[in-house]
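Much of the work behind modern protein science is quiet bookkeeping, done one molecule at a time. The protein below has been through that process, and both of its lines are reproduced in full.
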Amino acid sequence: MQCYLKSSRQRNPLQLSEFSPSLRQSVFKWKQLLSDVSLGCGIVSWRARGLLCVLPASLPFIILSIVSKPYERGIYCDDQSIMYPIKPDTITHTMLGAVVICCIVIIVSSGEAYLVYKEKIYSNSTFNQYVAALYKVVGTFLFGALVSQSLTDLAKYTIGRPRPNFMAVCAPEVCTGYMPVINCSGSLKDVTESRLSFYSGHSSFGMYCMVFLALYVQARLAAKWARLLRPTIQFFLVAFALYVGYTRASDYKHHWSDVLVGLLQGALVAILNVRFVSDFFKKRPPRRSRPDAADGEEHERKPNLQITEVEHGNHCNFRNHPGTF
């Protein structure tokens, strides 16, 4: 037996493979648990940040809808552009919303399901991959829709342009020359609504939704067999948005310039939203497969346990000599 006096000693690093299988499995489970907790917190914070961005975008739309008091612009009683009769809506709000929801459900849900199944897209979330993919697409869509509607209402309530059927809705008792303030005998709610001509909300919302979906199809439906299917779907989407705008002019709800500006604004918001907010055209690297067990884990991902001991006192190095144990 030989004894040596040392103040400290550093052993060689110990690899995980040197331990028993049960210990390796326990270490891997703890490592995976800590990774999932950290990733889960990141997902929650990301969703919270997304919600904090969506809510302010809807504030102008919500506030203006509650206040509901547009600018009362004076009119000329002989203005022929506001003397059209009252006609029912060809495309109502309910009909437009139903078509948009159906298109989103069919196109986005089927597209994301196919791409997740083929592992063309993936998320770092440990939650369901399909739900995570839908959350990103729908969240991006809602953000742009609220921005578009807020911009539309800002213009409507600030400018207060009379609709083409304003005189029929207002039904003034006396009107001669220029009237800075006009006394209407019609319903207050209808008169207020008839001052929101510029610009068309149907046109801007419909064009935003359809251009957004058209760009989604362009990014997601990139297979060779879809070279004709892709533009066909895009044609019908944009054609419906244009048809909605045309009906607003033919129903005497908006002037042609209101429809034109609404279509341009909706398309512009959709393009900017897809370009700078969404990840539709983002190039993704191939996904790395995650190990199912600790023994199948790649070598570089195994934890390297560095054990350092600081010992004080006498250390004895025992050597096997005859007569010793």
Summary: Strands lie at 2-5, 9-10, 14-15, 75-76, 178-179, 304-305, 308-309, 314-317. The two ends are 10 Å apart (CA to CA). Confidence is low (pLDDT under 50) at residues 1-8, 33-44, 290-325. Helices lie at 21-67, 93-117, 129-159, 166-170, 188-193, 201-220, 229-250, 256-276.
